[in-house]
Design brief:
The protein is mainly β. It has strands at residues 2-7, 12-29, 36-56, 59-74, 90-101, 104-113, 116-117, 125-126, 129-140, 143-150, 158-160, 170-171, 176-183. The protein has a single domain, classed as TonB-dependent receptor, beta-barrel domain (Maltoporin, Chain A), CATH 2.40.170. GO terms for molecular function: siderophore uptake transmembrane transporter activity.
Length: 185
């Protein structure tokens, strides 16, 4: 169920959705990550909120937040009631862009991922993290060039983990740059 509201004469909008997702036949890696084991069913109750606004003077803001309560609802007694793996309770992002005129623009944003469990028993917690990104662009007619810088401060973080061994943790991407050229026909 959701709703969208436009305000400030269409210069801003807000959306909200509330949902319940039920999944069955969920499988997870065993403790040594050598086999997949069925754990039963899980339920995720969530709320997502997002907003966008034209702030004037070429400034634009975008932001989003998600709250997820993901729980194993049917399984062995050891897992029933545990949080679903790799599902942060809180996540969000925020971006600000500035149109500099004459086709040029810049932007910067933050991405937040909350702490989450790496194993079905909820004994290993992967820490939450915040990364920063930046971008610059040039547009003229059908031509567009864009430069994105991801993980601006080269923050080390764990994006995923599987089981109780730290050897199974997957590090997040280091600082990276992507250049894009587009021509629209």
């Amino acid at each position: 169920m959701g709703a969208k509201y436009d305000w400030l004469n269409g210069k801003a909008s807000t959306t909200i959705s509330v949902f319940r997702l039920e999944r069955s036949n969920i499988k997870v890696a065993n403790a040594t990550a050598t086999a997949l084991l069925p754990i039963g069913e899980q339920r995720t109750d969530g709320v997502e909120i997002s907003g966008a606004a034209e702030l004037g003077g070429g400034w634009r803001m975008l932001a989003g937040y998600a709250y997820l309560d993901a729980t194993v609802t049917k399984s062995s007694a050891a897992l029933q009631g545990k949080r679903a793996t790799l599902t942060p309770r809180h996540s969000g992002n925020a971006w600000v862009t500035k149109d500099l005129g004459h086709g040029f623009g810049v932007g910067a944003g933050l991405n937040l991922v909350g702490a989450r469990y790496a194993d079905p028993q909820n004994t290993v917690t992967l820490p939450g993290y915040v990364t920063a990104d930046a971008m610059a662009w040039y547009r003229r007619g059908a031509f567009e060039a864009q430069l994105n810088l991801y993980n601006l401060f080269d923050k080390g973080y764990i994006v995923s983990g599987h089981g109780t061994s730290p050897n199974l943790n997957m590090p997040g991407a280091p600082r990276s740059v992507m250049a894009t050229l587009r021509y629209r026909m």
